[in-house]
Amino acid sequence: MFKLFRWATIAVACSVLFGLAAPASAQTVTVYGTNSTGHAGGVFDASGNYFVSRNGFLQRVTNNGATFTDLLTLANYSTGMVVRGADLYYSDENANAIYRIATNCVAPCTPTLVANTVAGPEQIAFDAAGNLFFSSFQTGDVYRLAAGCAQPCTPIVHANGGGFQFRTFGAAVAANGDRYFSTSTGRIVRTPVGCVEPCTGTLVTTVPGNQGGSLIFSNGVLYMNSNTSIYTVPTTGAPATVYATSPSFVFPYGLATAPNGDLIVADLASANIFRSAVGPVPVPTLAEWAMILMGLILAGAAMLIVQRRAAAL
Hints:
Elements: H1 2-21, E1 29-34, E2 39-44, E3 50-54, E4 57-62, E5 67-73, E6 81-84, E7 87-92, E8 97-102, E9 112-116, E10 121-126, E11 132-136, E12 142-145, E13 156-159, E14 168-173, E15 179-183, E16 187-191, E17 202-206, E18 215-218, E19 221-226, E20 229-232, E21 241-245, E22 252-257, E23 263-267, E24 272-276, H2 286-312
Antiparallel strand pairs: 1-24, 2-3, 3-4, 4-5, 6-7, 7-8, 8-9, 10-11, 11-12, 12-13, 14-15, 15-16, 16-17, 18-19, 19-20, 20-21, 22-23, 23-24
Helix pairs in contact: 1-2
């Protein structure tokens, strides 16, 4: 009896494991919105408004990608945006600064200086404690603004660029507090929560391509754009896999999660912002369904034996 239970448990566990691991095909990409020039960055607020930059402007996008409103001028592009509470924090790479505005501000909005930075601040990310991390494309280093620092804050070197082997671009924080950064050569580097600054980054994996490298955690999964594809990046060190690709991509330069879970992709070299639909739940193969059926049969047989022995007592 117990052997049957044991084999039933193993069969069901294997079927679930293989079912969850079944690969899904690359997702469909459609146009989310179209404007006059290329776009970078991108983030949604709690009301479903999408914020993105184009050359010289920060924009609020409403009506499901149909309406673009210029909120303020930029020195160039903002490649890093994050919403925290009622505020939008954004980097301005040519102004060498990070700013914030209220997400509901009325154009022309007045920004507040959060920090003067070193050359080329790119993506930014908050951890649960309120520390703000940002990458520098020009120096290759990663910096931190301490939680609660008096603005304009003074950046602290979080990790030296030597461990990245090239200039940093992407920044994302996992649910457990670990930080992930990307380079323009596709390297994904992790600094663990609690490390002593300046921290030493550990190489996680390398994503093919060398354009950009925007990172985002969406529903616990790490994604990165590279060349003309979006990749799913396992934090275990396994190879990255293509999540979505499109011949319409020219230079994807920013990822955001829409309220329904779709990935929104800002493209720097086209007038389009794209939508990549939420991936389907992987479906077990015929072999995996057979394992599930075998597990159910073994479990049923074991229960029948239990019932018969109980009746005989």
